[in-house]
Amino acid sequence: MSLFNASRLLGKTVLITGASSGIGAATAVLFAKAGSNVLLLARREDALKEVQQACIAAHKESGLKEGGNFAPIQLDVSDRAAIAGLWSKVPSNLRKVDILVNNAGYVIGREHVGDIDESVVDGMFATNVLGLIAMTQLFVKEFKAQKSGHIINIGSIAGFEAYVGGSIYCATKFAVNAFTTSMRKELVDTPIRVTEIQPAMVETEFSLVRFKGDVNAAKSVYAGLQPLTGQDIAEEIVWAASRPPHVNIASEVIFPTNQAGATIAYRTPQ
Ligand SMILES: NC(=O)c1ccc[n+]([C@@H]2O[C@H](COP(=O)([O-])OP(=O)(O)OC[C@H]3O[C@@H](n4cnc5c(N)ncnc54)[C@H](OP(=O)(O)O)[C@@H]3O)[C@@H](O)[C@H]2O)c1
The domain spanning residue 180 has which CATH number? Predict the structure, then answer.
């Protein structure tokens, strides 16, 4: 925790979408360790409850008095009506949110244009783009009213480097980049901060989801190099959130040391 000025995060309330695994889960635990409260949002309730327990343990271990409130919220960000009804699911003591981490997102398949199932296209846009926009619209209103707030959007290197077999996912992450950049410019006359985190290869459930549960195909993505972990990205997110109020980390691109582009990586022969 020495990297962070944890005092700036004490007693803050953070809402993280996609908190049931990977980057979102690791980020929740790290905020818990820093003395923040966390609203954990995703579709899988059991997984959220496990992350809630991990947050409770991390907070206890920190010995901090501040924070320590962790609430799972089962919600599908591709469901606009569910987002509109979000406040009914938030415990009354956690209604003032300070930091929104828009992290929920996924990719399915590597099919080329012409062969991509329309339901896959719709699902990725509904979650990665429309869900992120709906969550942001809801919170920008709150943040303007309370004259504070930090929106941290999880983009990807796929948001500036399109690659073969990633047309739809890349299109969604380019959209996240454009939306986030416009919003940062629109909010320049406010105290609201806007950050985009753009990771490269992170070993989470991401590839398992991409390859529809095929463990060997998912593992092959990381063969011969050391990928990033959810913890690595969580450290960047919590670090950005812990900067002083006049400092806005606009964007961060994070690669594993042996990766330098969407399709450029050095792998030791297996
Ligand atoms: N892993 C990588 O290499 C990588 C690289 C760059 C960027 N990213 C981005 O990082 C973010 C997190 O991914 P990850 O690597 O941590 O993958 P992950 O382990 O698969 O986590 C994805 C999270 O998003 C949630 N989610 C998916 N669809 C949702 C929906 N409709 N509503 C609510 N929650 C939803 C999942 O929870 P439920 O299934 O429980 O809903 C899960 O908690 C994504 O935006 C991804 O695009 C990942």
Answer: 3.40.50.720
pLDDT of residue 6: 77
Q: Does the C-beta of 106 come closer than 6 Å to ligand 1?
A: yes
Q: 65 CA to middle of ligand 1, Å?
A: 31
| Atom in ligand 1 nearest the alpha carbon of residue 106 | 47
| Residues 176-208 pLDDT 10s | 999 999 999 999 999 999 999 999 999 999 999
Tell me if 131 sits within 8 A of 110, measured CB to CB: no
Which positions of the chain have pLDDT values less than 50? 1
Q: Is residue 260 a part of any domain in this protein?
A: no
Mutational pocket test of ligand 1: of 103, 110, 253, 263, the residue with most ligand atoms within 8 Å of the beta carbon = 103
What pLDDT is recorded for position 52?
A: 98
Phi–psi pair at 113, nearest 5 degrees: -55, 135
Question: How many other CB atoms sit within 10 Å of the CB of residue 1?
Answer: 14
Separation of 21 CA from ligand 1 center, angstroms?
Answer: 7
